Amino acid sequence: MASSTSIKSRHVAVIGAGAAGLVAARELRREGHSVVVFERQKEVGGTWIYTDHVESDPLSVNPTRLVVHSSVYDSLRTNLPRECMGFRDFPFAIRSGESRDPRRFPSHGEVLAYLQDFSKEFGIEELIRFETTVVRVSPAAKTDGGERIGNWRIESTEKEKKSHHRDEIYDAVVVCNGHYIEPRLAEIPGISSWPGEEMHSHNYRLPQPFKDQVVVLIGNSSSGDDISRDIAGFAKEVHVASWSNPADTYIKQTGHNNLWMHSMIERVLENGSVVFQNGKTILAHVIMHCTGYKYDFSFLDTNGSVTVDDNRVGPLYKHIFPPALAPSLSFVGIPCKVIPFPMFELQSKWIAGVLSGLIKLPSVDDMLMEIKNLYATLEGEGVPKRYTHSLGINHFEYNDWFASEYGCSGTEEWRKEMFLTSFMRKMEHPETYRDEWEDHHHLVAQAYQDFSLYIS
Ligand code: FAD
């Protein structure tokens, strides 16, 4: 820890006003920094701002397409219980009000309303420049009387004012731009001459357009799971292909007459057939890639200090600071397979403390060594690069490290148990896990006991 006399207040740019950017802005301001948040949409909430609009290119590969930020579909409900999902000191508790959704696994609209509440409660909107896109972030070379002022140059453009191009200097940049926008696609032998339609789940909103069609989905993570069931209510047949299934997998899903699980697609043919590794062949109208997303920081110029290689963003100390540019450049929200909001909160507290000098980072060499060791461990365990940021159950330890550095309490036991319980229930009862919670009321009671500190 530094002495209080050496605490510094920085001028910080936060890119994005989704859940990560909102809590980053709050923590930075609490720590005494001056904060400007850049947000290209016209409201807060990021990916939770549902829109009917989809991109003109259903696969989202055309670089000139108009990007639609949200990947949320109409029927989406959270895949985590609300109590466990919310920020630590602003509980995602059931709130009264006509348009509120009181369910434990509420709809996307309830999450958006919660983020709007958060923004109002902490006065974050006054820090945000809406409809302002950051087009370039690059190292600053600006000096004042020979003294270098600030580390980063931020170029931004305001919508409706195409000519309004701002060029400013900041001490630090916190990147909170989200990573569910740039689709990742499966490679399918024969796809260039397959006559059907292809799309990515990023552009899925409603099941009705799939009425009477034969649809193949690739991937059975959260989105693939939800969307296959959504579509099965309208389509003639739905077939889910997954890498994680053994080669002979062919299972009819319980509760549906028209939904099958398969192993991965082996190839597709010019006559419209899809051939699975299990030997089954079907004629399909649509292939939907539910295959996740790529990290993308195309606005960021670090002269090669930060790269994205097979979805590994690096090198990043604690998945946050590139050692060579620390602490003036940081990223909130890179890890996945986590409970996002509380992790964003702890990462942000730590970043704010590091920027003010209250928390000290190790030397650049030591940070690089830790990253090198992480990569070596992952390689030794046979984990592909693209899973570098996939923390899963380890994310509690990860979060608790920030908590101890910052000097606040670690993850609550009830939150850990709720996460694990809901994960297991999702595996065992994917159809009903959101609406059956009978055995776990003690966890909810413990959560609300903690929440009583923050809600009256
Ligand atoms: P985002 O919400 O994507 O926000 C990023 C913001 O940055 C956006 O507002 C964007 O407009 C802005 N931005 C980006 N680039 C620029 C730029 N150049 N200039 C200016 N502004 C910019 N999480 C859960 O906890 N529970 C769930 O049930 C859950 N379900 C999910 C379901 C789906 C389909 C998806 C895609 C995600 C889900 N998540 C869930 C994860 C979710 O993404 C996180 O909870 C969280 O909302 C991500 O917040 P973020 O701020 O990192 O990113």
What's the overall geometry? globular
* Overall pLDDT level: 94
Helix/strand class: alpha/beta
What is the level 1 CATH name of one domain? Alpha Beta
CATH superfamily of one domain: FAD/NAD(P)-binding domain
Strands, total number: 23
The kinds of small molecule bound in this structure are: flavin-adenine dinucleotide
Low-confidence stretches: none
CATH topology of one domain: FAD/NAD(P)-binding domain
Binned strand content: 15-25%
- Which CATH architecture of one domain would you pick? 3-Layer(bba) Sandwich
Radius of gyration: 23 Å
DSSP summary: helix tally: 9
Mind summarizing the main beta sheet? 6 strands, mixed
Helical content stands at: 25-40%
Output the strand order for the largest sheet.
11-19-12-13-15-14
What is the straight-line distance between the termini?
A: 35 Å
What does this structure look like?
- The protein has 456 residues and is α/β, with parallel strands linked by helices.
- It has helices at residues 19-30, 82-85, 108-121, 222-232, 340-356, 364-380, 395-406, 413-428, 441-451; strands at residues 11-15, 34-38, 128-129, 132-139, 143-144, 147-148, 152-158, 161-170, 172-175, 182-183, 197-200, 214-218, 237-241, 250-252, 259-262, 265-268, 273-276, 281-283, 286-289, 293-294, 307-309, 312-314, 329-331.
- Among the domains are: 11-44 and 124-181 and 293-411, FAD/NAD(P)-binding domain (3-Layer(bba) Sandwich), CATH 3.50.50; 191-289, 3-Layer(bba) Sandwich (FAD/NAD(P)-binding domain), CATH 3.50.50.
- The protein is globular, with a radius of gyration of 23 Å.
- Strand 16 and strand 17 (273-276) form a beta hairpin.
- Helices cover 25% and strands 21% of the residues.
- Bound molecules: flavin-adenine dinucleotide (FAD).
- Flavin-adenine dinucleotide binds at residues 15-21, 38-41, 46-48, 69, 71-72, 76, 78-80, 85, 133-134, 176-178, 180, 223, 299, 333, 340-341.
- Belongs to the FMO family.
- This is Flavin-containing monooxygenase.
- Its EC number is 1.-.-.-.
- Keywords: FAD, Flavoprotein, Monooxygenase, NADP, Oxidoreductase.
